[in-house]
Amino acid sequence: MSTEWLIAAQEMRKPLVGFLSDIVAIPSLSREERDVVARIAAEMEALGYDEVRIDGMGNVLGRIGNGKTVIALDGHCDTVDVGDRSQWETDPFVPVIRDGRFYGRGASDQKSGVASAVYAGGLLKRMDAVPADVTLYVVASVQEEDCDGLCWQYLVNEEALRPDVVVLTEPTNLRVHIGQRGRMELEISTTGISCHGSAPERGENAVYRMAPIIQDIEALNERLPPQEPFGKGSVTISQVRSESPSLCAVADGCTIHLDRRLTKGESESTSVAELEALASVCGAAARVSVLEYANPSYTGLVYPTRKYYPTWCLDPSAPQVQRAQKAFRTVFDREPETGYWTFSTNGVATAGLFDIPTLGFGPGEEAQAHAPNEHIEIDQLVQAAAFYCGFVDSFTKQ
């Protein structure tokens, strides 16, 4: 197979676009994916997958083949909400095709990647092209927008699915992506002594204790050192809240929520330590804590995790990257581009927590994620499916 994969994918353009239309038309916020999961599972069955099942968390797993080498194509089927509908030129849940583009919520992030992967599996099955020593899993995962990587924590720990390589179908604009900055969510809390607001000198205001910490967080962000290939990490305050017995009382509690982005070499322990070492934090006897995620999936399963999502990066010389680049050349007859995501993906679990070789390739542009009037180029939808076929097929060559 060579550019034949591109030709074969072009032949399934109409049903592929129709399937994407169906799943974009189904609203599927995180923890509300039941209906879209059922539609994806039905399509896998119609395409002749060897096995289709839904796990305890609600992820869809479609299997083709039964070889010892396990390849997983992963795409999350949940989306963020639509935001201000007045900014949309079309109904976000009534797909529109115009000038070769497909519009709708989730078009880029990332139901197009799911659709391309599902149809790539169907095409490989129809052409009996999954290598004899390979098992292919196409995974439509849930809850990623709420807690990236949680689905793969469940798949690895509870389903014992540990692929030899994972291809994330998040939008890359048809580039091969090999990493991302990590992130974590933290809080810093101060306490005070409340009293009547008419005589604040009788108490100790927790908000005032927090004020120098806020200034120190801003200064910390400026001095974080850059590291290749991601540049510098960052820290910003995304929420401030206080507690008091009433609005006529001195605040006896204050909490700030931190969004911490992690570059290479930064971790949970280093990030917590640098915050605890701030003079303002020490002076206020403030408490630094990493938050926990413990919201149920649509199945009702609660699978708690800390909100620490590690940085990960696959070496450009790794064999999985070389194979992806070779598959790209074979399918498209041109040189691939390699890059990194700005946002976070399920790779925080597959690569960051479990050290599973992970790379990304998907239709759509990262800038379209979470944006009004979200769209993709339909040609990329077809081209991504061809690449996934070429990548799996490449395992016959080595």
Description of the structure:
- By secondary structure, this protein is α+β, with helices and mostly antiparallel strands.
- 32% of the residues lie in helices and 24% in strands.
- It has eleven helices and 21 strands.
- The strands form six sheets. The protein has a six-stranded mixed β-sheet with strand order 1-2-6-3-7-20, with helices on one face.
- A hairpin with a 3-residue loop joins strand 10 and strand 11.
- The radius of gyration is 23 Å and the shape is elongated.
- The two termini are 14 Å apart.
Distance between the termini: 14 Å
Total number of strands: 21
Mean pLDDT: 97
CATH architecture title of the largest domain: 3-Layer(aba) Sandwich
Highest CATH level, the class of the largest domain: Alpha Beta
> What's the total helix number?
11
* Largest sheet: number of strands, sense, barrel closure: 6 strands, mixed
The radius of gyration computed from the alpha-carbon positions, rounded to a whole number of angstroms, is 23 Å
Derived structural class: alpha+beta
Oligomer: single chain
Domain module tally: 2
Blueprint (SSEs and pairs):
Blueprint: H1 4-11, H2 13-24, H3 34-46, E1 51-54, E2 60-65, E3 69-76, E4 96-98, E5 101-103, H4 107-126, E6 134-141, H5 150-157, E7 165-168, E8 176-180, E9 182-191, H6 206-223, E10 226-227, E11 231-232, E12 234-243, E13 253-262, H7 268-276, H8 279-283, E14 287-290, E15 292-293, E16 305-306, E17 308-309, E18 312-313, H9 319-332, E19 338-341, H10 347-350, E20 358-360, E21 375-377, H11 378-393
Parallel strand pairs: 3-6, 3-7, 7-20, 8-19
Antiparallel strand pairs: 1-2, 2-6, 4-5, 5-21, 8-18, 9-13, 9-14, 9-17, 10-11, 12-13, 15-16
Helix pairs in contact: 1-11, 2-4, 4-11, 9-11
